[in-house]
Design brief:
With 155 residues, the protein is an alpha/beta fold. The chain has a single domain, classed as 3-Layer(aba) Sandwich (Trna Endonuclease, Chain: A, domain 1).
Amino acid sequence: MGFDVTRFDDFDGKFKYGPEDIIDMIGYRLANESYRCLPALLEDKYKISVIGRMFRRDVGRVYVDLLADAERGETKALIVGVVKPELEAKHFAQLKLRVKRVAELYERLNGREIIPMMVAFRASEPELRRAERRGVIVVQSREWHGYAPKGGEKL
């Protein structure tokens, strides 16, 4: 006997997942994969060392997809980022809000430099140029192919 979803009292015969939910699920999967693969890529490509683990957290009622303690050379830093399936202009405003909230409210910041970052499955050339002008690191998921996750685990 299989699982029967209709046995729940609140089931109205319609499944609740729409296109937005599926996009969110893709984003969560992308975020989880980025936590594993980004540290090695950031070290190699940007000379940024991630200290400890990458994580997500609510900061001042704003959900931050990507936080990580880091060092860039001798400078202590905190990576603050958003993770999106496809990078769009509106995501820059979302990142700006998250950076602002972290700068204002995050108790572990302790005066460290904030490194703004966007992780995406895909980013267009105009959005990549916009990010470069704003000093935002953009990593597309195809870039971490071949980078072993921190700890030597194979992809």
